[in-house]
Amino acid sequence: MPDLAKIHDIVKVYEKTPTPLIYILKDVQKEFGALNEPILSEVARITRMPLSEIYGVATFYSLFTTKPKGKHVVRCCNNAPCHVNNSKEVLQKIKEYLQVDMGETTADGLFTLEFTSCLGLCAVAPVMMVDNEVYGNLTPEKALAILKDYKLKGSSNA
User: Fold this and answer.
1) How far apart are the two ends of the chain, measured CA to CA in Å?
2) Structural domain of 53
3) What is the C-alpha separation between 103 and 114, in angstroms, rounded?
4) Do residues 51 and 82 share a domain?
5) What is the pLDDT of residues 33-79, one digit of tens each?
6) Same domain as 146, residue 92
7) What are the residues whose beta carbons fall under 8 Å from the beta carbon of 149, sequence distance 6 or more?
8) Is residue 81 domain-shared with residue 150, that is, in the same domain?
9) Residue 101 is part of a domain; what is its CATH number?
């Protein structure tokens, strides 16, 4: 069970901030990795906000998650420009390499695979994002080389 007392410290930082919930949830998620029910209940208790409101915010915004994600989050664009530039084949190879489907995390906890809406880089489609790094002009081979590099770094704790 996580140390929920840390939530109180996070909430205190934002007590004078107008509409602090997004900031609180961002920091709580950074501390605990996900916004599960016990954590959201504690945020509700400390902030004296309805749990339903907190849950609504936590599940509305894509930057929040209610279940733990891998060390690296791989987001593949699924909008039309990427689609017409062969993103389906790239995605298939990524899924085969990681041995997961969309929304799943690899057994070693290193990668979570997700769809994302347009990243605004249609000129270099297909595009994927790993954590905060964006990669364009992808081919299946290029995408796998990128992921293999992350995997190598992850296994060496670099």
Assistant:
1) 28
2) 4-60
3) 5
4) no
5) 899 999 999 999 999 999 999 999 999 987 799 988 999 999 999 88
6) yes
7) none
8) yes
9) 3.40.30.10
Does a structural domain hold residue 66? no
How far apart, in Å, are the Cα atoms of 114 and each of 1, 2, 23, 50? 27, 26, 23, 29
Amino acid identity of 99? Q
**How far apart, in Å, are the Cα atoms of 19 and each of 14, 47, 77, 144?**
9, 11, 31, 42
Instruction: Please state the pTM of the whole predicted model.
Output: 0.72
Distance between CA atoms of residues 4 and 37, nearest Å: 12
Matching residue, tokens 């501390």: 31
Residue type at 61 in one-letter notation: Y
Rounded to whole angstroms, how far apart are CA atoms 72 and 79? 22
77 and 135 in a single domain? The answer is yes
Asked whether residue 84 is assigned to any structural domain, the reply reads yes
* C-alpha closest to that of 22 among 71, 63, 52, 77: 63
CA angle 24, 28, 29 (to 5 degrees): 120
